[in-house]
Write a structure and sequence with these properties.
heterodimer; A: about 575 residues; alpha/beta; Rossmann fold; six-stranded mixed beta sheet; 20 strands; about 25% strand; globular; B: about 325 residues; mainly alpha; MetI-like fold; two-stranded antiparallel sheet
Chain lengths: ~575, ~325
Amino acid sequence: MTLLEAKNISIGFPSRHGMFVAVKDVSFNVQPGEILGVVGESGAGKSTVGNAIIALLEPPGEIIAGEVWFKGKRIDNLPEEEKRSMRGRHIGMIFQDPQTSLDPLKTIKQQLVETIDVHLRLGRKGSEKRAIELLEKVGIPDPELRINHYPHQFSGGMRQRVVIALALCGEPELIIADEPTTALDVSVQKQILDLMRKLCIETNVGMILVTHDMGVIAEVTDRVAVMYNSKLMEIGPTSQILSNPQHEYTKSLISAIPRPDKRIDRFPLVSYIEQIIEPEQAFNIKEHWLGQAQEYTMPVADDGTILQVKDLCMRFQISNSLFKSKRRYLDAVKGANFTIKEGETFGIVGESGSGKSTIARMVTGLYTPYSGSVNFLGKEISAINHTPEVLAYRRQMQMVFQDPFSSLNSRMRVMSIVAEPIMFHKLAQSREEAEQIVLDLLKLVGMSDDAYAKYPHQFSGGQRQRISIARALATRPRFLICDEPTSALDVSVQAQILNLLKDLQQELNLSMLFISHDLPVIRQMCDRVAVMQFGAILEQADTEQLFQNPQHQYTQHLLSLMPKLDMLPGRGLS
Amino acid sequence: MFSFLINRLLQSIVVLIAVALIAFSLFKFVGDPINNMVGQDTTLQEREELRERLGLNDPFHLQFYHFIKNAVVGDFGISYRHKVPVSDLIAERAPATLELSIISALLSVFIGIPMGVYTAIHRRGFISRSFMSLSLVGISLPTFLIGILFIFLFGVILRWLPTFGRGEVVSIGWWTTGLLTWSGIKSLILPSITLALFQMTLIMRLVRTEMLEVLCTDYIKFARARGLSEQAINFGHALKNTLIPVITIIGLQLGLVMAFAIITETVFQWPGMGMLFIQSIEEVDVPVMAAYLMMISVIFVSINLLVDILYAYIDPRLTIDGGSKHG
C-alpha cells in the first residue's frame, strides 16, 4: 500500500502583495521502507513540501491546491487537533541542525520520556525502558548513563542520533528528514546516513530526505525528486536520474558537482539556472591599477616562497580556575609547519574542530599565535601590531570569509564596502579614482554595472561572495586566504565562484591558502594539500599524489568517505 | 563552580568598598557637620572638643578605616538630627520599606510573567492587544503621577482605601508588620500597586519578546513535530528557556524597587527608609545618608550574586563544565 501520496499540491504564502506560491503543482508518493530524496537548491521549495506534509508550515502558509493522502486517508484537511495527533505518532521529522533542535535545559531522558508518554502511554517506568532501547537502537553507547545527560554534553553526530531517537518515539510510519546531515562532518554524515538506511530497512519506515547534496542522494535514496524554482522537474529511481537525467536542469546540476576522481580545468556551469555574466576582460589587467601592484611590493624570496609557517601553535583556555593546575586548555593548533610558494594554491582539509580556520586566523593576524612564527615575504608578522611597516605587509594578504551574509556590513553600500580598503591604505590619489577602481573590480568579479549603489541584502549568497572577493582584491593583495569560501553556497553557485577564483589567480598571479572540508573542491582547487586532525597536520603532499596514494591512515579514511558518484554519466569509467 | 562563586564574591567586595569610599567622602566634603549639630552660642573651643571626640581631626585614611570597621558590624554612628544611633533608625524604618517593596516585587513577578506568556502565545488576540496598550501607560507614566491618580480615584472619589501611612501595625520582636491587620493590608494596596506597576509592565514586555523569540527556535519546532501538546511546549519547554535572560533583568529591577521606593513613600507618606533618606538630605544628616547608601549597595550586590547562582542552577550548560563531551 502506498504510504503517502501527494497529489498536485501547491503551497502559498499570502502577503500584502498577493499570494507568494512556494510550491507549484507537485505530485509524488512514498512507499513503506523506501527513501525518497528531494533535491534542489536553496529557495526551490523542497523544505516547504516537507513542512506541509507534517502540517507545520510557518503561518500564514497553507496548501492552496491539491491533496495529501496518508495510508488511504486524506490528511491535509483534518482539523488542527487531529493533525497534531498525527505528528510524531504517524509522521515524524528530523531537522537540520542537531545543535539547536534539542531543548538545552532538559536532559535527554526528560525529552524522550515526555514524547514516548504522549504517544504510547507506557507510564513512567515503561517509557524510560523504551527510551533506553531507542538510544541503543540509534547507536549511542552506554545508554543507561548517557540518558541522564544534557544535549550540550553530546557531540554533533551523537546529538543527531538523539534527534533521530526522539523522532522514533511515537513509532511513526513516515519520517521527513530535512537536511539531516548538512551540519555534520563527512565521517559523521556517513554514519548517520547508514543509520537512517538501516532503520528504514528494519522497521519498514518510509522516509522523505530533503537535501541539496547530490552525494547524499546518491548514497542512500531509492528514488529522487528534483525540484527547481517551486516546481518538480523530474522524479524517478536514483540510479536512473543520476546516470541518465532527462531534464536540462538535472543535467546541468549534476555537471556542476565537483568531481572527486579527476582534476579538471574549469567547472562546467549550470547554464540552465540563470544567465550569468561571465567575467569579461574589459581592460588589460597588466596596464590597469590592479596589475601594477608588483612595483610597490617587496620581492619574493629566491626559492619563490611567499609564506612560511613554522611550529605554529594556538592554545585556548577552556576553563578558568584560581589554581593554575586546574586550568584547562585546548591546543587548537599543535605545531603547524608549511610553506606556500608564489602563484600556488595550498589547501588545508579537515573536519570541524581540526584547527584549520584557526591557522587562517593566525596567518591573517586575527589571533596572536601562542608560539611559532609566520613569515610573509621575509617579514615576521605573527604578532598583532599596526605599525605602518607591518601594515604594508598585511595589505598584501587578504581574506575571504565563509559566510557571505555576515561578512559584509549590511548598512554600507557596495561602493563604500569595496572602496574602504583602498581609502584606508591610501592606494588611490582621490575618491574619484578609487570609485573607478571599484567599478572595474566589480566588473572583474562578474557583477552587473548597477551593483555599486546597492546594499548587500539585495544580492544572493553567490553575488555577495563575489563582492567579498572584490573587497579582498581592493588592496591589490598577492596572497588570498579563503576560509570555506563556498560551503554556504549552492552547488551551481559554488562552481561559478571557484571558477572565478581560479581565473583571478591566473590573471593576478595570486597565491592562495584555501581551507575546506570538501575533498572534491580541494582536489579541483589546490596544488598542494595538508590534512589536519585534532590540531595537527598529519600529511602534506601534492594534491594528485595525496588523492591517488594517501599515506596517512586518516587521509585514507577521509578519502574512503567521499560520496560515491560512480553512477553519474561519464564517471567511474575512467 | 566554586571558583566562579569566589570570583563573584571578591567582585562584590570590591564594589562595596568603592561605594563605602563614596559614602564616606560625603562626611568629608559635604559641609561641616558640626555646624548642623550645635547651636549658635557654642564656643569655638567647645566645637573643637566635639570635633576631636567625633574623630573628625584624624587623617582621611584613618577615618575611612574606622568607618569601614564600624560599618561591617552595622554601626554607622549617630544621626546628627535625631541624636540616636543610625542603625536604630534604620532598623525602625526598614520593615515598612521591605514589606512594601517585597509585596510589589511579588506582584510584578507573579502578574508580569503570566501576562507576558499570555500575550506571547495569543499574539493577535484582543486581550493581548489591550494588555500591550495598557502596558504603555504603565511604562510611560511617572510613578508619582500614578500614585496621585490612585489617591484621587480610590481615596478621594471612591473612598475605598486609605491614602497615607501604614495603618495599624503589629510588632513581632523588632519587626513591625502591617500584614496582620485589616487596616495594614488596606494601606498597603495602593502604594504597592503604584510601585509595582512599572516593573510589572517591564517584565511583561520583556517576557513577551523573549518568549516570541524562543517560540521560533528549532527545538520548539521539533517539539511540535513530535506531537507534544501546546501546553507541554509552552510551559514545559518555552517558558524555562524564556526565563534565563529575563532573570537578570528582574534581579536588577528588584534592586531598583527597594532603592527607589522613595517616590512612592513620599507620595503615600509611607514611614519607610525612603522617607528617612529624603529627610536626611534636607537636614544634611550625613551618617544616615551614608548608611542608606551602604545598605542599598549591599542589597544590589547580594541580589546580583543570587541571580548568578540561580542562573547556574537553571542552566545546566553553566554548572557542568563544557569539557565533558563524549563520543
